[in-house]
Amino acid sequence: MKPRYRVTLTVQERQELETLTKTAKTSAKRFLYARSLLLCDAGPQGPAWTVADTSEAMGVTPRTIEHLKKRFVEGGLAAALERRQPEKPPREVTFDGAFEARLIALACSETPEGRRRWTVRLLAEKAVELDPVSISSLHNLGWVNFLAGNNEKSIEAFVKSVELHPNFTWGYIKQALGYLNLKKFDLALQATQKAESLLKDGWGSELIQEVLIFNYLSAGQKAKADSLINRFLDYASKNTVKDAFTLSCVYRYKKDYVKALEWEEKTLQQRSPSAYLLALPSTYVGYEDFYKSEGHQKILQKMGALK
């Protein structure tokens, strides 16, 4: 089935969007929109990624990408990048039995510090946090702020996401990434361990496993990271790796740089949804020499990330 909205960028539009993704002053949302449009571009120079692949790569919901494509098709590039306020009023919040039960439990719980009792205003504010619909927006907010280097705001959003859904594994994993950037290693370790405890048999998706290894290494837990590396390589020897990017990272963590480059090449060939991470210096914290190496620079040239 053909996509409902088809993004076809001109050469000038691609250049404008590529400039936005490489400019430090670009806001988190504009970075997300610009990068997503480049991935969705079905023109001669674009990779024509699907909505599903783009949303996974950018850490947002498919609905966010659909709306972005719709704004581009109907209003052009400026409208896509500058999301306007909705003309219609927001939908009313609906309360089902489960939500009502959680709100009643909240009203019977200990009041916030400095408050003698729950007021209607306090309950209303907490109700917004408890609304299950908001978890996707919290995740999007956290991830785009992380990509933009706003670690405190990123952590704040991911902390709220796990308050809303305590079993949201990515919420713990990604807040740990923010803590690592701030060198708060104890907090990063706690969040990483919590994330792993939520996984069945300690195993999640390939991408989750790769990030867990990175988090443990960065938090100084080499023995733990090595055990996860060995487990991942054992998995890769028995299964087809769906995301080549993850295995390139695992080999890099193992300091097998020849294999790491080999799987970076496969990442491009596979058109992995995570391929855009190859061009982000933040992906290579602790491996800056590898990022600057001739082999990786060739990868960046093939991606068009270097002039």
The SSE order reads HHHHHHHHHHHHHHHHH
How large is the share of residues in beta strands?
A: under 5%
- Principal-axis shape equals globular
- Structural classification: mainly alpha
Low-confidence stretches: 85-100
- Quick check: average pLDDT? 81
Fraction of residues in helix: 55-70%
**Total beta strands:** 0
Q: Distance between termini?
A: 36 Å
Notes on the protein architecture:
Among the domains are: 11-81; 99-130, no CATH class. It has helices spanning 11-21, 28-40, 51-58, 62-75, 77-81, 97-107, 120-130, 134-147, 151-164, 169-181, 185-197, 206-218, 222-238, 244-253, 257-270, 288-292, 294-303. It contains 17 helices and no strands. Helix 6 (97-107) packs across helix 7. It is globular, with a radius of gyration of 21 Å. The chain has 307 residues and is mainly alpha-helical.
What's this entry about, in short?
The chain has 307 residues and is an all-alpha fold. Helix content is 64%, strand content 0%.
What's the arrangement of secondary structure elements?
Elements: H1 11-21, H2 28-40, H3 51-58, H4 62-75, H5 77-81, H6 97-107, H7 120-130, H8 134-147, H9 151-164, H10 169-181, H11 185-197, H12 206-218, H13 222-238, H14 244-253, H15 257-270, H16 288-292, H17 294-303
Helix pairs in contact: 1-2, 2-3, 2-8, 3-4, 6-7, 8-9, 8-10, 9-10, 10-11, 10-12, 11-12, 12-13, 12-14, 13-14, 14-15, 15-17
Provide keyphrases for this structure:
307 residues; mainly alpha; 17 helices; 64% helix; globular
